[in-house]
Amino acid sequence: MTRPDNRGPRGKAEPAPRKARPTTHSNRARDSDADGDGNATQKLQKTLAQAGLGSRRTMEEWISDGRVTVNGKAATLGMRVGSGDQIKVGNRTIRARPEAGVPRVLIYHKPEGEITSRNDPRGRPSVFDHLPKISGARWISVGRLDFNSCGLLLFTTSGELANRLMHPRFEMEREYAVRILGNLREDQAQQLLNGIELEDGVARCVSVELRGGEGSNQWYHVVLREGRNREIRRLFEHLGFTVSRLMRVRYGPVELPARVKRGHSYELSADETRRFVKWLDAAQAAAEAPPAPRGRRA
């Protein structure tokens, strides 16, 4: 299901973390506390991030801009909130739910024909219809897959964890199995690696690998480090190919387990989740670290 890095062997039961490095998230355990009456409280920006509104840094900017109120008054940076406080962002009310232990993380094998949204005016089936019910929290989708795509979807109860996994700054790898009619020429594969100008900017693949096929149908495994709308389909359409099947098989270190059939899910154990978060801390700390100074030449 998972592996220690983005190109390791398949079939691991859980993500093995890389060697631990200093991380900017090391003080998170101290963000939650209790007031004098024993009520659990935590910093306002953390509560907003957990609700899936954005990163902590973005929430701090919203608070500074006066977009957040607590109990009818303008919020201030660093203030603490608990379950009894009324928090509003615009007209939206947010409930404070201090974290208890590790967040929950769920793997779902999405079939074609489901939307990655809770509500659809057209009444189409939703991925949320098939997730296990939970009380006191809700499942938050980590990214999306379009209606005609299938494969791995991650869900978590932590909005902050979801934002960390989706933030463009960390360039989390997404791997897809892509079926097309025909074969990519070597120069076309190189175009995918070099980058192709789409209507919303240049898009490029990290790797493109032929995985065989039957007749004129050929399978490729493609890795991206972003999640733009219909990006893979648009890249192949630019080269004159139609994608007849698109399946996500990996997100970061998490692979879609073969035992999880379409329309079914698997929830990571607490130990698997701790390993996953530890891997994420190390990977993101490495991404944020300044480059090492070059040594002097002899």
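Second entry:
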Amino acid sequence: MKKNRKFTTTHPWLEKFSVDTREIDFETWILLGEAQSKCEHISNAPLKPITAQKLHQIYLAKGVLATTAIEGNTLKEEEVIQRLQGKLELPESKQYLQQEIDNIIESCNDIAENLFNKTNVELNPNHLNNINGKVLKNLVLEEDVSPGKLRLTGVAVGRYLAVPAEDVEYLLNEYCTWLNKTLSKLDSKNKIVYSIIIAIYAHLYFVWIHPYGDGNGRTARLIELSILLNAGIPQPATQLLSNFYNQTRTEYYRQLDKAGQLKGNMIRFLKYAIRGFVDQLKEQIEQIRIQQWETSWIEYVHEKFNEKESMSDRRIRRLALDLSKIFMPTPFSKIRQISIRTAEAYASKTDRTLLNDLKKLIQLNIIKKTKDGYIVNREIILAFLPEKINDSIK
């Protein structure tokens, strides 16, 4: 029973879990619409499987590192990627950092696997206990902290005093009931928009309850991840909120603190999170665009040499492809050094031969010569640059 519980006096805004969309201003709605559009764009982006896997691994590493770095983990993104690939083994003095990372990787994989296998994904206290248990597995903890067990003592986070320990179990049950009921009512048309709102609100409600002795922030961000994945948001994008919180760590804690001071006013935190999410989505789309551009460029080069299979044609094509890996002008004196393959191809050739090959690539519009050297003409395949639109209608 809610009546006579201490939290109704100390944390009255938790008497009813809710998402009141009437409080959301038009600017935030526009950002939410943009977020949905960009998530759909990423979902439908054609990429080679190996490229898609690489991007997935990069953003998983970013998300895993972010959710632990906020709590003080000092590993670098490259090290997390190595750990994902099974290549990183740290010295004993840093094993705890590796264990924190392993715990989040395992938790992310479990959440994704359950969703993709259509395992029952309803959140309940036991499920949350299991998540927290994995987050804290094999870590050195304070004596009063037990992984996956609700706290039995009061706790303060900065200036925020969490709900009384005696009310934690009741509130966690109410939280799960609200969350499952709210998510079950979403229709497919606007599922992404409302799931983003609910994920952020669920994050806030969870940290206000602060049910565990440790790992509450990490557990909250994993709940957020679970909701976003369940909404159909592509996996790389589901890691972006955690990445943003980490990049703006000081502001993240300030916004959490402010929301607590305002007694349950979530709008400021929602706007902060949505702005960051959209900015991160823009960066991710740009990364995807670059990958698509590179793939299209390589295909363009091969098309230019279609049915040209003489030894010189193969040599010139390989030169073009090797130059394509360099994103700044290369002086003529450095051309032979751009790759081992190019060095071998021109080891017995004169400068005149190399110069003639470069001229052929210029004639094919594959490269261009600048005052600083030779550079590939990638922009030629960007069909809708303004000057190209003008050319097409002349």
